[in-house]
Amino acid sequence: MKEQAVISQVKGAPVTQKKVIAVIFGGRSVEHDVSVLTGLQFLEALDPGKYEGIPVYVDPLGQWWTGAPLTRRSRYPLEATPKDLTQVMLDLATPASGRPQLVAFSKGLMGEKRTTIPFDLMVPAIHGSNGEDGTLQGMLEFAGIPFAGCRTLGAAATMNKVFAKKVAAQAGIKVLPELLLRRPKKGEFLDPDALKKQLHDAFGETPFPFIVKPCNLGSSVGVGKANDMDGLVAALMTAFRMDGEVIVEPFVANLVEYNIAVRRTASGDTVTSAIERPLRDAELLDFKNKYLAGGTPGGPKLDTGPSEGMASLNRVLNPDELTDAQEKFIRGSAGGIFDALGLAGSVRVDFLCNGDSGELWLNEVNTIPGSFAYFLWEAASEPLSFLKLSSEMVEEGFRLSGDRLGDTGTATGGATIFTRS
Amino acid sequence: MTAKGWFHKVEGSEGQSLVWLHGWGMEHASLLRLASLFRNTHKNTLYDQPGFGHTPRLQDGAGTEDYADALARELEQLGGAPHILIGHSFGGRVSVQMAARHPHLVKAIVLIGGAGLQRRRSLAFKIRARCLRLMGRMAQLSDKLVGTKFRDAYVQRFGSSDYKNAGALRPTFVRVVNEDLSKVAKSVRCPTLLVYGSDDTEAPPEIGRRYESLIPIARFVEVRGFDHWDILGRGAYQCEALIRTFMDDLKDE
């Protein structure tokens, strides 16, 4: 064993030799808390031999923080002015070094002091709006900052449920019909008669129940079931509080859900993970039983490890009730939508199934799924540990960001106006 | 698990044998999360050490060398030697003893928050400890001579929770916490990985650094942001990566 060399490497190596990976989580999103868990899990799964992880926490007000105490779950929620953390912002202008950086300002003796925290790649771990929806990705692309996961288009297209379904339908993937409703203007009320007509136009004579979902949110927050007109109005009011656009879909009887993760390997193959069937007590998967199921009296245990958040949702992995045809549909559709939208990272695709008839529909695509769906990869036919998954996502991020920029010199496009020496 | 011998759980069946040894007051389950990450690549045997979980205790006042000798007898039966021993805390003490006393059974050892060296303490701490010990002895003496019940009160007030909960293992506990494995560590010949959480107050990184200087072939790594316990939970992937790299380097030899 070349022990001496290895020891000096571990002891003396400057931290800068490793790639610095900034994991951004939290955010101004209803899924803020779950995002904290996902972000911390990713940091904990980063290979310490290759990467140095730094937490970047976006609090519900939109302020950015960094510092080692953020890696502890017990540190949340933050107080108003945390003293052990550094408030930072992202430098959107490319610094002279060419390396992305966070900037912190502090009061020094000679006025304001500016310090920088350089990094090499950012990992968006923010679920839902302002993170999973392409806005963060667009900002990073604009700034030329390498990042992991889906690019702007894929992230934006999948966040809008109606748009994602249109693309899926065009790729030949079966989806449920839907009715898109916009939030009434201030002072206006939902008109039940107009609503009835719209329902009739969209679904014909399809009777109740319907399911109501916010159009632009990733999780099951704001999802409600409507058994009659009163229920529909109530469910719409709840959903409109979360989102300006809401969709109404027929409720799938004997509902069973199946989820699967998709990614692209370094050699360019689209591969799928294990399939999960989430276990539910209630008829409907709402936020409570999605994230707080199994909560022991006295609240969830903090700082215990990766087995929390989406990873602790009770599930059946590789359920044996699926027929070969159903499994083929799930794997094929998941890979199909991934390719059609040119997605990246670890993407989870969710399906609805009528447990009696066996009929399946693609429901939605999550480009930043809870816990990055690592538990689905660990249970795949070719198991992939979270440690490897995180490395693959980081390296893919570097590759995709490197590919994008290309040559932006004006001479390349024959668009030179000013004479350069 | 076996009808006789040490209770154990097996994870995985292929590859190099990894033997997992838990810390004081714990049982094999405390290492299950970490060990399960090696399920697809290694044969993992997680023991309940004597006196913990489902394994009966050894003789009164058994020390870490007795734990090692008893484990050696277990491993002779298990097959698959030489093993890589992975010990957390007290399990680290037993691993060091195993490597020193039964080298033919041990290919390498990994200590996660491994104990076994006396903590460096401040003078104030030492004085306080001396005084307390004296007080304890006097309480015991008084109990014996005039039938007072001072000793129990003393233990309740000043005894550590591990001491209070040790039950029949109390003589072992007293021996173990007072032992120092410096000499034993010097005679370890196998490669050793030392993993310590930067926030560990039970077995601080300083112990790992001293182990590194005592054990001839040793690699010390301090993992930032983890303590004695959560390094096994949320730190599992960090440990996995370090152990895998260490084992890959063993192969290169």
How would you describe this structure to a colleague?
- The complex is a heterodimer of chains A (421) and B (253).
- With 421 residues, chain A is of the alpha+beta class.
- Chain A folds into 3 domains: 3-147, 3-Layer(aba) Sandwich (Rossmann fold); 156-174 and 254-397, ATP-grasp fold, B domain (D-amino Acid Aminotransferase, Chain A, domain 1); 179-250, ATP-grasp fold, A domain (Dna Ligase, domain 1), CATH 3.30.1490.
- Chain A has 11 helices and 16 strands.
- In chain A, helix 3 (135-143) runs antiparallel to helix 4.
- Chain A is globular, with a radius of gyration of 23 Å.
- The termini of chain A are far apart.
- Chain B has 2 domains: 8-118 and 180-252, 3-Layer(aba) Sandwich (Rossmann fold), CATH 3.40.50; 123-167, no CATH class.
- In chain B, 44% of the residues lie in helices and 15% in strands.
- Chain B has a 7-stranded mixed beta sheet, with helices on both faces.
- In chain B, helix 9 links the parallel strand 6 (192-197) and strand 7 (218-223).
- In chain B, helix 2 (64-78) packs across helix 3.
- The mean pLDDT of chain B is 91.
- The interface between A and B is medium-sized, with 27 and 29 residues.
Short description:
The complex is a heterodimer of chains A (421) and B (253). By secondary structure, chain A is an alpha+beta fold.
Q: Tell me the span between the first and last alpha carbons of chain B.
A: 34 Å
Structural class of chain B: alpha/beta
Q: How do the strands of the widest beta sheet of chain A line up side by side?
A: 6-5-4-3-2-1-7
- The amount of helix of chain B comes to 40-55%
* SSE pattern of chain A: HEHEEEEEEHHHEHEEHEEEHEHEEHH
Q: Helix coverage percent of residues of chain A?
A: 25-40%
- CATH topology description of the largest domain in chain A: D-amino Acid Aminotransferase, Chain A, domain 1
Beta content of chain A: 15-25%
Largest sheet of chain B: 7 strands, mixed
* Helix-strand topology string of chain B: EEHEHEHEHHHHHEHEH
| The CATH superfamily title of the largest domain in chain A | ATP-grasp fold, B domain
Here the CATH topology of the largest domain in chain B equals: Rossmann fold
